[in-house]
From TrEMBL:
It comes from the Eukaryota. It holds the Pfam family Voltage_CLC. One of its GO terms (cellular component) is lysosomal membrane. This is Chloride channel protein. Its main location: membrane. GO terms for molecular function: chloride transmembrane transporter activity. Gene3D superfamilies: Clc chloride channel. It is found in: Membrane. It comes from Cuerna arida. It is a multi-pass membrane protein. InterPro entries: Cl-channel/antiporter, Cl-channel_core, ClC.
């Protein structure tokens, strides 16, 4: 009897120590400024395809027709992803055009007036005020509402596609903050573009429609898509959304597929290639059609994408010019290396010293 009591007390003390260790681990504080540790809120996703007797029996019970319907629904969801990713791109582009036109129209008025009145410093102050007013909404939304929407969005999407589940990365609120943020940044004259935000936006759209529900829009509950709620299916749709974002940004469906294949996904199959290419094509076509209609030439599919570097009248070059191209490439490489070095140092500085929300703003 005494032996039994001793054993019970031993296991009780052991369990209590384990509980204390778990609590201490959960309450552990990471020192401010630490840059080489993952966040405790990150989780891993389950991409393994479960196979057991119960699953086999369930598949046999549902029959072959169920699998056919499931494949059809996959293609339908990829089509929806392409359409809505393009529509988000259209909304972002039109918003940027309207706000930028208003900004530069007012600046031109001040320049014309100050040219005669000899007060050229005033247009500069107006330009500075316009940029600050444009940037502040996006900054506040990211800092106080959804911090995961900061940056281009490409790194977090690549993390998701490779098995790291970051909280709020594919939430509808993240999409709204991301869209407003990119409009705010571009109109404010910051050195950023639409490719990264479009990739992240496409990923959020894909994650939302593939699950058939949203935590914010609770009325949206499509039970038809409930069969795609596991991590593996959701990952494939997010890969399609990221590719659709690239296609909308550059008007290049093949480029979208190559982005997901080469840079995004570690898990791939041949069937996914065709579905992602389909979503990318739908995205590029929808954006082209909508923007052509907006530019008052509907049916004339001549809108390349959200990013346009203009045209060149003369593409011919002579042999001596190759040396100039080599020098330009070398200078570009050096400037790129300097930019990456500076960006890394600034990022570490921000992580180490700008550790409160108002300082980040």
């Amino acid at each position: 009897m005494e032996n039994h009591n001793n054993n019970n007390s031993f296991y009780r003390e052991r369990n209590q120590s384990l509980v204390v260790e778990v609590i201490e681990f959960k309450d552990e504080k990471i020192p401010i400024g630490t840059t080489d540790v993952l966040k405790q809120s990150y989780e891993s996703q389950n991409f393994d395809e479960c196979e057991n007797d119960l699953l086999v029996d369930e598949a046999q019970r549902k029959g072959y027709q169920y699998e056919i319907r499931k494949k059809i629904y996959r293609w339908v969801i990829f089509c929806i992803i392409g359409v809505f990713t393009a529509l988000v791109g259209v909304a972002i582009d039109i918003s940027i055009q309207k706000l930028s036109d208003f900004k530069y129209t007012k600046l031109k008025e001040y320049l014309d007036w100050c040219w005669d009145e000899d007060c050229m410093y005033q247009p500069y102050l107006v330009w500075l005020a316009f940029n600050l007013i444009a940037v502040i909404p996006g900054t506040l939304l990211v800092a106080y509402i959804e911090p995961v929407a900061a940056g281009s969005g490409i790194p977090v999407v690549k993390c998701y596609l490779n098995g790291i589940k970051i909280p709020h990365i594919v939430r509808f609120r993240t999409l709204v903050v991301k869209a407003i943020g990119v409009v705010s940044s571009v109109v404010g004259g910051l050195a950023c573009g639409k490719e990264g935000p479009m990739i992240h936006s496409g990923a959020v759209i894909a994650a939302g429609f593939s699950q058939g529900k949203s935590q914010i829009m609770r009325f949206l509950n499509l039970k038809t898509f409930s069969k795609f709620t596991d991590d593996r299916e959701k990952r494939d749709f997010v890969a399609g959304g990221a590719a659709a974002g690239v296609a909308a940004a550059f008007g290049a469906p093949v480029g979208g597929v190559l982005f997901s294949l080469e840079e995004g996904c570690s898990y791939w199959n041949q069937g996914l290639t065709w579905r992602i290419f389909f979503a990318s094509t739908i995205s590029a076509f929808t954006l082209n059609a909508c923007m052509s209609w907006y530019e008052n030439h509907p049916g004339n599919m001549s809108y390349d994408g959200l990013l346009n570097f203009g045209g060149f009248d003369n593409l011919n070059y002579e042999l001596p010019e190759l040396l100039i191209f080599v020098v330009m490439g070398a200078i570009g490489g050096l400037l790129g290396a300097f930019f990456n070095f500076t960006n890394h140092k600034l990022t570490v500085f921000r992580m180490r010293y700008l550790n409160t929300t108002w300082l980040k703003v």
